[in-house]
TrEMBL record, chain A:
Family label: Belongs to the NXF family.
Entry-linked PANTHER family: NUCLEAR RNA EXPORT FACTOR, NUCLEAR RNA EXPORT FACTOR 1
Stated name of the protein: mRNA export factor mex67
This protein's record includes keyword Transport: yes
Region (Disordered): 1-95, 107-139
UniProt KW keywords: Leucine-rich repeat, mRNA transport, Nucleus, Repeat, Transport
Organism of provenance: Stereocaulon virgatum
Biased composition (Gly residues): 57-72
Residue ranges, compositional bias (Polar residues): 18-30
Biased composition (Low complexity): 116-125
Top-level taxon: Eukaryota
Automatic annotation (TrEMBL), chain B:
Residue span(s) of domain NTF2: 16-166
Gene3D superfamilies named among the record's database cross-references: 3.10.450.50
Protein name, per record: NTF2 domain-containing protein
PROSITE patterns xrefs: NTF2_DOMAIN
Organism: Stereocaulon virgatum
Superkingdom field: Eukaryota
PANTHER family, alphabetized: NUCLEAR TRANSPORT FACTOR 2 (PTHR12612)
Length: 700, 168
């Protein structure tokens, strides 16, 4: 739960440390220079409607909260149908219908509609349940104000039981039989307001004691709206939505793609509208905020593009349960800062287990979990498959990530196994693909003969390149009628008609496929994986050898773009796997194509066959710098006689910082001292001070 | 010479491919101890190169026994899903050196090129990434067919060469 006004253990600086905003650092594993962002250096504007205007400078007016205090339970004269935003129910620049936002926000924020209550009910410890429930049970709700100012407020339960007893006594006619005594069925406290539920026949009796004196104050007693659909939410929510949008716009930095939700409890605007005044409002806050985000960024791609980093630092979170919706709204974030919260154990984080599949950097410094679950790092490694950095420490390399996603294959992915004979395969491939793009008819005449076979099959559901999300679904209309996927084509006549034998049939098949452009073999070798080896037992076209002749099997994996012939523009990208069997024959260079099988699938990239460890032909991106090798004196950073636990901890931190920065232990210690012994802060401080540090600050 | 008819060639080759695909890939998950039985006996090509040829992500695996122990002892749990396969007759009448060979019209002497496209999940199925793979296999008739021990079904077709690649 978000709690009001937490005191950050390491001071306000902690809120903006360490969320690394660049997607990948190449020079250092520490927060990059660009990673430390002043909040809202370029403020995002919101337009007149209170919507975020991405990347545009707006008028700057924003909806604001007007200090209504806790309005929960307050009566409203406005009915459900009154739509305060009705005048602008036209789509905005974002293409979003504001009234739809309004409805969805209403659902998740203000009203107690049963649909959204289930998930929250466990958060409630207050007596009684929501208003919707009351309505179904035929109870009336009544609000009572004044308890907080009364002398009873100092009693152990805040005076609630005293007030209830008082109300029941005063409302009950002393002469009536006991079965007619007024009974308060349920009650709960929302802020300063006590909300009670009574049988409808008792309502007038309770309302009658309005303005009675209770423990030194005059009570104000009013009937609450009779149905959950007409409660205070209508008058309340639009204001709240505007405030939340304002909060989002202030806390979102377009350039660094950072959504800074740190220290929410002391956000003046949120405090102003009483966002955290009651447990129930507080529990609705974060889901509502996420809902608004969902409506601003409508597609996964948009979200991923707009927000790479989220900070939830300094929120006194004992667990992530109140903010768990972050994982649904922003599943693809790369950096997440949870520093300086009160997360004690793994259970407190469990809601995000297996979520954030692209999370690269997680910060949990300043949480009790560090001390209470010393090996939590192991779990983080398991839970977040792309995590490379925990706090400021690199815990896994990019290679390991790759190995992990391939399941940790015991044998490495190697470059192509190209065991050619007399450059036959090489020559063939170099000639084949350019000719395939430019003149398929000649190609067929040059390499295929009456016995050659060709078939095409389409894997319509093949996995796609992991790096490319939100790809549009490929359409296979121009291919599918020729596809000989034997999983799907089961009747013999169809299997036969989709196998092309002889030059005429093959020419017809190939020349009616869409025009293509393959990447240049020489210029972009990484986009190709070409392997070959010899095979025995091919049919001898001369008929001399019964046991057959030798040949080559050539397996090519690659990609091509389809080309719009009229414009010459490349359109769809597709991946292919093509296997040729080449034998001796009468074609170009004494070669004939015995078999040609072509498999097409959705674009799958070329990362999969890049050799591990950067062999020849590797296009592996620059690897992040490893940790510095440091020499740690004996006895340093380990417990010893006369050494306090705190001292050991400090030494451990110094070692970590030295490993990350290459500084000497002495300088690391100084840097940490100045940074309040917070590793994240120290790392940031180091980055800033780096250019001015003397050479002796570093280990040689 | 009586030759193999086109429809018979298509029927036998596609059925052989189907049988192979439906038995080989499940074995990679559940009966790795039977893997070596999918391969032709160790032999050499006329030029002395070893057969069968086994390639796995660019690694040359020396023989079926090594392939089997690689899977049995080192490979993580894996689940293969074949999404697409196709085949072509490579040689309609292949007779191994010194062998008798069946009637050419029977289709029992053909060699078949099988191409498979699908995905594999290594490790825990629930969380593992889908890795696309492409595999090309040459099947040859089992020379020992019919001489098998009683009650034990021999595979009709065996792997002569195989090349597996993760492609996504």
């Amino acid at each position: 739960m978000l709690q009001q006004a937490p005191t950050p253990p390491t001071g306000p600086r902690a809120t903006r440390t360490s969320v690394r905003t660049s997607e990948r650092l190449t020079s250092s594993r520490l927060p990059s220079r660009g990673g430390i962002q002043k909040r809202n250096a370029t403020p995002v504007r919101i337009d007149r409607d209170g919507d975020l205007v991405m990347g545009a400078v707006g008028s700057g007016s924003r909806g604001s909260g007007s200090g209504r205090g806790s309005a929960a339970g307050r009566g409203s004269t406005q009915g459900r149908r009154h739509d305060p935003l009705g005048t602008r129910s036209r789509p905005l620049k974002t293409g979003i219908d504001p009234s739809a936002i309004q409805k969805s926000v209403l659902r998740s924020m203000g009203s107690d509609e049963p649909v959204s209550r289930g998930a929250r009910s466990s958060l409630r410890s207050v007596r009684g349940r929501g208003r919707g429930q009351d309505a179904r049970e035929g109870l009336d709700r009544i609000t009572i104000r004044g308890l907080k100012q009364s002398k009873a407020a100092g009693n152990p339960d805040g005076g609630v039981s005293d007030l209830i007893g008082f109300l029941e006594r005063k409302a009950t006619n002393p002469d009536a039989p006991a079965r007619e005594a007024v009974k308060i069925k349920k009650s709960r406290l929302e802020g300063e307001i006590l909300i009670i539920s009574v049988r409808p026949e008792d309502t007038p009796k309770i309302l009658r004691i309005n303005r009675y004196m209770f423990a030194g104050v005059e009570l104000s007693i009013q009937a609450a709206k009779p149905t959950p659909l007409e409660n205070d939410a209508d008058s309340e929510t639009p204001n709240t939505v505007a405030v939340l949008k304002g909060v989002l716009s202030r806390r979102y930095n377009v350039e660094s793609k950072l959504l800074d939700l740190s220290q929410l409890g002391s956000d003046p605007e949120l405090v102003n509208i009483g966002m955290f005044s009651t447990t129930s409002r507080e529990s609705k806050f974060f889901p509502a905020l996420m809902k608004i985000c969902d409506n601003i960024f409508t597609t996964a791609k948009e979200k991923e593009h707009a927000i790479a980093s989220v900070s939830l630092a300094n929120n006194a979170l004992p667990s992530i349960s109140s903010v768990t919706t972050l994982a649904q709204t922003f599943p693809a974030i790369k950096n997440l800062d949870l520093s300086n919260n009160e997360i004690k154990n793994l259970t407190s984080l469990d809601g995000w287990r297996w979520k954030f599949r692209k999370l690269d950097h997680l910060i949990l410094t300043g949480n009790p979990i560090e001390a209470e679950v010393p090996d939590y790092k192991d779990n983080m490694l398991k839970w977040f498959p792309s995590l490379t950095t925990l706090n400021t420490i690199q815990i896994r390399s990019a290679e390991e990530i790759k190995a992990a996603t391939s399941g940790g294959l015991p044998i490495p992915v190697l470059g192509p196994s190209f065991r050619d004979e007399a450059s036959i395969s090489e020559t063939f491939v170099k000639q084949f693909f350019p000719a395939y793009d430019s003149d398929r008819a000649s190609l067929v005449n040059g390499y295929y003969d009456a016995q050659s076979t060709f078939s095409l099959s389409i894997n319509t559901s093949a996995p796609r390149a992991p790096a490319i999300t939100d790809q549009k679904m490929p359409v296979w209309d121009e291919y599918i009628k020729k596809s000989r996927n034997l999983m799907k084509i089961e009747h013999l006549p169809a299997r036969m008609s989709r196998l092309h034998t002889g030059t005429d049939s093959i020419r017809d098949a190939l020349t009616t496929l869409p025009a293509t452009r393959h990447p240049d073999l020489m210029a972009e070798p990484q986009k190709w994986c070409i392997e070959c080896h010899t095979v025995p037992g091919l049919p001898d076209v001369t008929g001399q050898s019964v046991s057959g002749v030798g040949g080559l099997i050539v397996m090519v994996h690659g990609e091509f773009s389809e080309v719009d012939v009229s414009t010459g523009q490349a359109t769809n990208s597709r991946s292919f796997d093509r296997t040729f069997v080449l034998g001796a024959g009468a074609g170009v260079g004494g070669i004939r194509v015995v078999c040609d099988t072509l498999v097409l699938r959705s674009y799958g990239g070329y990362e999969a066959w890049q050799p591990e460890g950067g062999e020849i032909g590797s296009s592996a991106p620059e690897q992040p710098q490893a940790q510095h090798q440091i020499i740690v004196p004996q006895g340093f950073a380990v417990p010893g006689p006369g050494k306090s636990e705190e001292q050991v901890h400090k030494e451990v931190l110094a070692v970590e910082l030295s490993k990350a920065t290459g500084m000497t232990l002495e300088y690391s210690g100084m840097c940490l001292e100045q940074s309040g012994w917070d590793l994240g802060n120290a790392a940031s401080a180091f980055e800033l001070a780096k250019p001015t540090l003397p050479p002796q600050a570093f280990m040689s | 010479m009586v030759t193999l008819s086109a429809d018979k060639a298509a029927k036998i080759s596609t059925e052989a491919a189907k049988t192979f695909v439906e038995s080989y890939y499940p074995s990679l998950s559940t009966s790795r101890s039977s893997l070596s039985s999918f391969y032709m006996p160790a032999s050499t090509m006329p030029d002395g190169k070893p057969l069968p040829v086994i390639l796995y992500n660019g690694n040359i695996i020396p023989d079926p026994t090594s392939m089997q122990s690689l899977f049995q002892e080192q490979m993580p749990e894996a689940r293969y899903e074949v999404q697409n396969y196709d085949c072509q007759v490579l040689n309609p009448h292949y007779v191994a050196e010194g062998a008798q060979g069946s009637d050419p019209a029977s289709g029992k002497n053909m060699t078949i090129l099988v191409t498979v496209s699908g995905y594999v999940k290594y490790g825990e199925v629930r969380t593992a990434a889908m890795r696309g793979f492409s595999e090309s296999i040459v099947l040859i008739p089992n020379p020992d067919l019919g001489e098998g021990t009683r009650g034990k079904v021999r595979k009709e077709w065996l792997i002569q060469s195989q090349n597996f690649r993760l492609v996504v």
